[in-house]
Design brief:
Length: about 425
């Protein structure tokens, strides 16, 4: 019938996994559309934490099928580990996971190239997760990639060999030591494992499902400010993380899309290098990091923290066509006397709500609006209407600025901690 999209509006780690897991029973299919194992989506069910990197976040729910779309780049080694962990938890992965034959593989040499390129950049490094994302997407757009469907070809080893040779030549431009043999043997073991999975023509699977009246939730990875076109370039990832990426990454037409659910934290985080106008590089930032447990789900790196950035969110809402917002981690600000929200950027003495073309080389001074903290434990509330006035005031301020409703409030990492403003207009 239709496709809803759920994606991040900031610099990733907004809590996409948690919300998708909650909403998953309302859909027939959860389909991841871009990114790769640079993502870490955390689900907490009955106190047990599961971090997913490649497998869609609907996998722990009974109802939906899960599809890894053509727009995703797959490291077979990470995928194998992830599936083995799920099997150990008793999840019947094989029955509910499908992988697009058109998704591209991350090769061991892609990971080495990623590390070599980052090392060569020195202080200007992107802060990549070093999962081989950028070299793999470069090979995809350069028409040199290795696709999942290729493992069914008798020519597979030759295709692999040709790409590897090219990479070894490229690596000569770097002064970078590496050891390939062990990585390669683990990779080929994992490829054999992938052969046993359900490899499909996912664009047909998804469109046939839509024709049969089924509903799909498209799962984004990373966040809008990391989008290859609209993020803080070059400090971005290598895929289109915005809503249009769901069309490319799944093969679904724009007209099939209904809701675009944007996820934002009540504050901001960023992991890796690059501009972050509202960053709190001080004790307050450290306090938010500590209370919020802001350490990367994939790399364990401390996340940079700052106040909510409304101009950036407004921009994200514009480029995604967001129809409703889910706000996460408001509970982290429970004890704050005042909450600040950036409403404008000051550039060369001029105030603007617009994101400058080049945030990297433009000095931006965020202008803040101060709001009263709610000083109440939001985890004690089980209904949206009962939430404290001060918190609802904060929400109203955010909604009015963004011109978009916050329909979901997440008050903790656990699956059940999600409050709805009204009967959500999804699925
Ligand atoms: P994702 O990449 O967008 O799926 O987000 P991550 O899983 O990388 O990071 C979000 C972190 O916040 C995870 O540790 C979640 O368990 C946690 N989380 C999600 N929503 C909430 C919330 O509303 N409150 C709190 N305290 N934690 C949350
Ligand atoms: P999820 O889906 C937060 C960041 C990296 C780095 C930049 C480029 O969990 O929200 P890459 O490995 O893609 O070459 O890194 O993007 N990054 C993320 N930050 N959450 C993510 O995913 C991220 N995936 C990549 O830290 O700054
Ligand atoms: Mg994450």
């Amino acid at each position: 019938m239709h496709v809803d999209i759920l994606l991040g509006l900031q610099w990733g780690d907004e809590g996409k996994g948690k919300i998708i897991d909650y909403l998953a029973p309302q859909y027939d299919i959860i389909a991841r559309f871009q990114g790769g194992p640079n993502a870490g989506h955390t689900l907490v069910i009955n106190g047990e934490k599961t971090v997913l990197h490649t497998v869609p976040s609907g996998i722990l729910q009974e109802r939906p099928m899960n599809v890894i779309g053509n727009g995703v780049v797959i490291d077979p080694v990470t995928l194998k580990k992830e599936i083995e962990n799920l099997l150990a938890k008793g999840i019947d992965v094989n029955k509910r996971l499908f992988i697009s034959k058109k998704a591209h593989f991350i090769l061991p040499t892609h990971k080495i190239l990623d590390a070599a390129s980052e090392a060569a950049k020195g202080k200007e490094k992107i802060g990549s997760t070093l999962r081989g994302i950028s070299p793999t997407y470069m090979d995809k757009t350069g028409r040199n990639g290795l696709r999942v469907g290729d493992i069914l070809s008798t020519d597979f080893k030759n295709i692999y060999g040709r790409i590897k040779e090219k990479h070894l030549n490229l690596l000569k431009i770097y002064d970078f030591e590496y050891e390939l043999n062990e990585l390669e043997s683990t990779w080929f073991d994992a490829i054999d494992f992938v052969r046993s999975l359900n490899l499909i023509d996912s664009e047909y699977y998804l469109n046939n499902a839509l024709s049969a009246g089924k509903n799909i939730l498209a799962e984004g990875a990373q966040g809008t400010m990391l989008d290859i076109d609209f993020g803080t370039y070059p400090y971005v990832t290598s895929s289109n993380t915005i809503s249009s990426g769901a069309c490319n990454g799944l093969g679904i037409a724009p007209g099939k899309i209904k809701e675009v659910i944007g996820i934002a934290k009540a504050y901001c985080t960023r992991v890796g290098s690059g501009p972050f106008p509202t960053e709190l590089d001080n004790d307050l930032g450290e306090q938010i990091r500590k209370i919020g447990g802001e350490f990367g789900a994939t790399t364990g790196r401390p996340r940079r923290t700052g106040w909510i950035d409304l101009p950036a969110l407004k921009y994200a809402i514009m480029v995604n066509g967001v129809t409703q917002i889910a706000m996460t981690k408001s509970d982290i600000l429970n004890d704050f006397e005042t909450i600040e929200a950036c409403t404008e950027y000051e550039v060369d003495g001029v105030l603007s709500q617009q994101i400058p073309y080049d945030l990297v080389n433009t000095v931006v001074k965020p202008v803040y609006h101060q709001l009263c903290g709610w000083k109440t434990d939001l985890r004690n509330f089980s209904s949206y209407d009962d939430l404290p006035e001060t918190f609802l005031g904060y929400l109203q301020f955010v909604e009015e600025y963004l011109g978009t409703e916050v329909t979901m409030i997440s008050t903790g990492p656990e699956r059940e901690r999600l409050l709805f403003k009204k009967a959500a207009s999804i699925a």
